[in-house]
Amino acid sequence: MKNKILITGGAGFIGCNAAARFIKQGEKVTILDNLSRPGAHKNLDWLRETFGSTAFEFLQSDIRDSEAVNLAVKNKNVILHLAGQVAVTTSVVDPRTDFEINAIGTFNVLEAARLNKENPVILFSSTNKVYGNMEEATSLMNESRYVYKDFKNGIPETFPLDFHSPYGCSKGAADQYVRDYARIYDLRTVVFRQSCIYGPRQMGVEDQGWLAWFCIAVLNGDPITIYGDGKQVRDALYVDDLINAYELAIQQIEITSGKVYNIGGGTENTISIWSELSHELEQIVGHKIKVSYDDWRPGDQNIYISDISNAKQDFGWSPEVGVSDGVKRLWSWAKSNRHLFK
């Protein structure tokens, strides 16, 4: 039996890639998106051009509108809740809107699901920012990157929560609500604390989607500012691998229900945001890339690497696309779609 899938934020970067995967598989897909994010219209147009306007249902609505969410959730048996305010910097400037979208919007999705007789599977895209600045995870610095002193396998889900920045607080509140609705109301929820996700259809900007942003900036000859020393390390996960994780977690919901997973590239797919990425990009473009440096941004972690062992153990998932190969794929897509960034 085919699933009836609702994807909130389905015109976003991750959302449109997920929609494309499930449409190809013949699932009945509904996208809910307010199209406020730059690039969302372009991703929606791409889905329509690729699959046809009748291949999925589109609802231009906002997750802050509880009535609209109730209608969208009705009769769905899978919900990918991907909609949200995504930038720490934006949350610092406008914390109220950040809270209303991330915390109240998620609450609206959960309440709609609780009242839905289908008892849908709910996958929520949380963030590693719920761990805050992670002072307890002592790091050391070498020539090109920060490294953990103790967490050789990355940060586990048991690491203490420490919501830092309005964004960390709003996503952290949503993260815990999603988890608790499984405990209190027996909803089939799964929380993915996602690290750096990248890939095609990512319209990166300076404060979010940094891998794509650097590719786009280099292509357009735009100035690049590195906040901090550029040795900050992230585990990078190609978007196709993330959607593989979504699929496996849904298929094995008897195991994954009520659980929280750190999802990222893991220790095998790490890169420093400029001191190492610059070498990858300079090899691709064939020349040095000029950058300037500025102060660290609020809530920025000098290193974050996910321990993904629980995802491997519970539903047999691991990344397939290495970070070097993934960056080349992202660059190739961006170069072929330069018209999208004008």
Computed CA radius of gyration, to the nearest angstrom: 19 Å
Number of domains: 1
The low-confidence runs, each spanning 5 or more residues with pLDDT under 50, are none
CATH architecture: 3-Layer(aba) Sandwich
Main beta sheet strand tally, sense and closure? 7 strands, parallel
Name of the level-1 CATH class: Alpha Beta
Shape: globular
> What would you call the structural class?
alpha/beta
Number of helices: 12
Our estimate of the beta-strand percent is 15-25%
Oligomer class: single chain
In total, how many beta strands? 15
Q: Strand order within the widest sheet?
A: 3-2-1-4-5-8-12
Secondary-structure map:
Elements: E1 4-8, H1 13-24, E2 28-32, H2 40-51, E3 57-59, H3 66-73, E4 78-81, H4 88-93, H5 95-114, E5 121-127, E6 139-141, E7 146-148, H6 165-185, E8 188-194, E9 196-198, H7 210-220, E10 225-227, E11 233-238, H8 239-251, H9 253-256, E12 259-263, E13 270-272, H10 277-285, E14 292-294, E15 303-304, H11 309-315, H12 323-336
Parallel strand pairs: 1-2, 1-4, 2-3, 4-5, 5-8, 8-12, 9-11, 10-14, 11-15
Antiparallel strand pairs: 6-7, 11-13
Helix pairs in contact: 1-2, 3-5, 5-6, 7-12
